[in-house]
Design a protein that fits this description.
By secondary structure, the protein is α+β, with helices and mostly antiparallel strands. The chain is built from 3 helices and 8 strands. The chain has a single domain, classed as 2,3-Dihydroxybiphenyl 1,2-Dioxygenase, domain 1.
Length: 130
């Protein structure tokens, strides 16, 4: 069975929101993008919570997308295509370490598809190998 392993929330104050989840629920920081107001990745050891900066004034704060860890991304994409979803999942840019593919459900909710998972990624190491 595929598993939901990642949830992303957009906010105008990443530090404040991340601090809330750390203080209230005891989440640990997994990774932080450099620079003030950058993305902050938190974890409970299994599930990854991404706190993303909202730089788009036309986009609201709140749930942005969620992510599935799957055994075979190609089979997952084939299932989605067979169901006739209007937006077929597409590859993410290569600098996106946390997910290889982005899609949306029939209601337009975004989801990521990843074979490698969301907790095992080491962004600094990935950038050194480029």
């Amino acid at each position: 069975m595929d598993k939901i392993r990642h949830l992303a929330i957009k906010t105008e104050d990443t530090e404040k929101l991340a601090s809330f989840y750390v203080e209230v629920f005891g989440l640990k920081e997994l990774y932080r993008n450099r620079g003030e107001g950058g993305a902050i990745m938190l974890t409970d050891g299994y599930f990854n919570l991404a706190i993303l900066p909202n730089h788009d004034q036309n986009s609201r704060n709140g749930l942005y997308h969620f992510g599935f860890q799957v055994a075979d991304a190609e089979k997952t994409i084939q299932k989605i295509t067979k169901l006739g979803v209007s937006k077929v999942p597409k590859s993410r840019p290569q600098d996106r370490e946390y997910a290889e593919t982005r899609g949306s459900d029939p209601d337009g909710n975004y989801f990521d598809i990843s074979e490698h998972g969301f907790l095992e990624v080491n962004p600094a190491a990935a950038k050194r190998n480029d």
